[in-house]
Amino acid sequence: MENTAPGPRAGRKEWIALAVLMLPLLLVSMDVSILYFAIPYVSEDLAPSATQQLWILDMYGFVLAGLLITMGALGDRIGRRRLVLAGAAVFGAASVLAAYAHTSELLIAARALLGIGGAALMPSTLALIRNLFADARQRAVAVTVWTAVMTTGISLGPVLSGLLLEHFWWGSVFLVNLPAMVLLLVLVPFLVPEFRPRPDGRFDLPGSVLSLAALLPFIHGLKELARDGWHPLPALALSTGLVLGVVFVLRQRHAAHPMVDLGLLGRRAFGGPVCANLLAMFATVGMAVFLTQYLQSVLGLGPFEAALWSLVPAAGVAVVAPCAAVLAQRFERAHVMAGGFLLSACGFLWMTQVRVDSPLWFTLAGGALYAGGLVAAMTLANELALGAAPPDRAGSAAAVLESGQELGGSLGMALLGSIGAAVYGRDMADAVPPGLLPDAGQREAVRETLGGAAAVAGRLPGADADRLLTAAREAFTHGMGLAAVAAAGVMAAAGVVSVLVLRGVAGGGGPSVSSASASAPAPAATSAATSASTSTADPTPASVSGRAADGAADRGKSAEYKGR
Question: Of 47, 202, 450, 455, which has the most beta carbons under 10 Å away?
């Protein structure tokens, strides 16, 4: 028996609530990259050691990724609105602490607190969308907005940082968080309903510790291997994380009150989008590192100018996403997602043709092509996954989805970065004659990174410096091209996986979805584009198979709010 009844439609209050929830999400995602420009000023003021500087940069992302699953499960038990308010309070207080930190140790501690607050905010905002928008058509648009805010926030971080640092001291990049958090604390109690916690309110504390103990060393090991190549300690951290991850999964399989619903993860409507998002973030983050370095170190753009130009590929999203919205009304979403991945594969293949002397527009056009395809596919994946999650487990489901994205990004940095580094080192070993650099330390620095080659070139005579820089830039561009080939291959595989795994899965999710409406997402670049798509899209409901009792139960759960 099929259930085709749409859920109740949201009104103005719910859309205003969405706007309020998106502002802190934007800041949380921006904080991942907002220190890129500020770190030289921090180093000058606080004089951190090399290790401390790395922890200042990485601590936020480590804690955020490690606590996502914990915070998602906690929100399902104590209430998501309550967790959002607590996360906003912690994030605001930690922002003040970071802004006025007078030692490196204090700044690292503040960045850890920011990670705790961010982990409380991110899955809760996505889970609350599941509660605010029972109608699948409206929920698709809301998820699109969420995806757009999350993905663009990381790109906006360096731009905002550069603007603030032109006029204020480095602490201003943290204080900019305060107005949004105060607004959140004031308005959320009036606009956002509380979702009734699950009846099995026990929190799996040992499982929480295990998830943190598995994710932190795993992600840390990946980043260290991507940054410095093979070393025993990062490899040990990676292995430890994998072993503890297996222990965590075994515990969740037998726990009376698991943090992660492994049964949900095994469903095509949820597990498929999680896998798709992981692969998408693999390519997105892995290539972002190359694009940033290419703009600055190969084309010679300044950091702020490079950050502004790096926003241009978002225009591709505004073009591709409306097309995906139209196609999703007429064809299976699995095929539309596969089309997005294949389009991104074409964009990465385009990037293989970038050379040292390529015009800027050519490089940015390739970036726009792969960014448009990726965000279109990710938006559909997020909407499918959120629709597949029962309302009482939406927080845990959102956390698993976002954890997959974090792991995908770390894998992309490690694997694609390793490909680029290996190609660069081999090319430089062949390009630099032994007589040019008699010092062994200089030869090693030149073969490791483009930045090292630039530093060595600064101490050479003019002709030798130009020769070395030209070779280094060509080697880096060659490495970027081969990394793009690998990214294109992964995207092609993601397209095949989307068709094989998600074919036949309707837009609202799987059998456990309360609403059977399939809907197309709006563009994921700007609010103006989102509004335009919302006004023109008229998705046709598509039924999903499932028991009528399950659908009625889910609709009942989605109406269990407090404070409406």
Answer: 450
Cβ atoms of 89 and 409 within 8 Å: the answer is no
Please work out, in degrees rounded to the nearest 5, the angle formed at the alpha carbon of residue 89 by the alpha carbons of 88 and 93.
115
The DSSP secondary-structure symbol of 177 reads T
The string of pLDDT tens digits covering residues 148-177 is 777 777 667 777 777 787 788 888 888 888
Q: Which of 509, 511, 529 is nearest to 519 (CA)?
A: 509
Please report which helix (H) or strand (E) contains residue 195, including its range.
strand 194-195
CA 161 – CA 166 distance, rounded (Å): 9
Residues with Cβ within 8 Å of 376's Cβ and at least 6 positions away in sequence, in order, are 317, 320, 321, 323, 324, 336, 337, 340, 343, 521, 524
Which tokens go with 276? 């798709």
Which residue, chain included where needed, has tokens 């600064």? 458
Q: How many whole angstroms separate alpha carbon 56 and alpha carbon 306?
A: 23
Inter-axis angle of helices 178-191 and 12-30, nearest 10? 150
Contact 313, 521 (CB under 8 A): no
Integer Cα distance of 313 and 242 in angstroms: 35
Answer yes or no: is pLDDT of 462 > 50: yes
Q: Nearest CA to 248 among 209, 275, 294?
A: 209
Cα 179 from Cα 162, distance rounded (Å): 19
pLDDT in tens, 91-102: 999 999 999 988
Q: How many angstroms separate the most distant Cα atoms in the chain? A: 79
- Tokens 């309110």, residue located: 201
Pair 25, 125: CB distance under 8 Å = yes
The pLDDT value given to residue 537: 33
Q: Is 476 exposed, middle or buried (0-12, 13-18, 19+ CB in 10 A)?
A: buried
Q: What token pair was written down for 56?
A: 């200042």
Angle CA(176)–CA(179)–CA(180) in degrees, nearest 5? 95
Cα separations (Å) of 133 from 139, 140, 142, 408?
A: 5, 9, 8, 28
Listing DSSP states for 104-142 in one string gives HHHHHHHHHHHHHHHHHHHHHHHHHHHHH--SHHHHHHH
Contacts 24+ apart (CB under 8 A), 468-474: 468/432, 468/436, 470/356, 471/427, 471/428, 471/431, 471/432, 472/424, 472/428, 472/446, 473/297, 473/298, 473/356, 474/356, 474/427, 474/431
Name the token pair of 2: 């099929």
Q: Is 320 in contact with 373 (CB distance < 8 Å)?
A: yes
C-alpha span between 247 and 257 (Å, rounded): 16
First to last CA, the chain: 32
How is residue 411 annotated by DSSP? H
Q: What is the pLDDT of residue 93?
A: 92
**What proportion of the chain, given as a percentage, has pLDDT over 90?**
9
Rounded to an integer, what distance in angstroms lies between the CA atom of residue 340 and that of residue 280? 10
